[in-house]
């Protein structure tokens, strides 16, 4: 069974995080590479600059963002498969920098991964 965790880039690393993959297009402000301890940075999985700027982390735009971002991700199946490959041992932590823990791209990516057929995970 696949366990996907979401963690802010500013949160402490835990021993049971599993592989940690940064899914932001832009590097998190004020975080060093040593502190973040990621296994990969899949910047191209982050929302497009246009979508990110339109959304502006406004919860009122969440459903629109979610729908538009899912459409962007649908065109990035190879990257989603690469991301799923990090969960070889059943754990994966998606790292993001947004303050809002409920309305961000990692939430949408997690939904997309959980909806993928088991054989392609």
What secondary-structure arrangement, pairings included, does this model have?
Blueprint: E1 3-8, E2 20-22, H1 33-36, E3 40-41, H2 49-55, H3 62-74, H4 77-85, E4 91-96, H5 105-115
Parallel strand pairs: 1-4, 2-3, 2-4
- So what's the overall shape? globular
Helix content: 25-40%
State the end-to-end CA separation. 10 Å
How many structural domains in the coordinates? 1
Per DSSP E runs of 2 or more residues, the count of β-strands stands at: 4
Count helical runs.
Answer: 5
Major sheet description: 4 strands, parallel
- The ordered H/E elements are EEHEHHHEH
Structural class: alpha/beta
Low-confidence stretches: none
Report the C-alpha radius of gyration, rounded: 14 Å
Determine the mean pLDDT. 92
Biggest sheet: strand arrangement: 1-4-2-3
Which band does the percent of strand residues land in? 5-15%
Task: List the main descriptive attributes of the protein structure presented here.
121 residues, alpha/beta, 4-stranded parallel sheet, 5 helices, 4 strands
Structural features, described:
This protein is of the alpha/beta class. It has one domain. It has helices at residues 33-36, 49-55, 62-74, 77-85, 105-115; strands spanning 3-8, 20-22, 40-41, 91-96. It has a four-stranded parallel beta sheet with strand order 1-4-2-3, covered by helices on one side. Helix 2 runs antiparallel to helix 3 and helix 3 crosses helix 5.
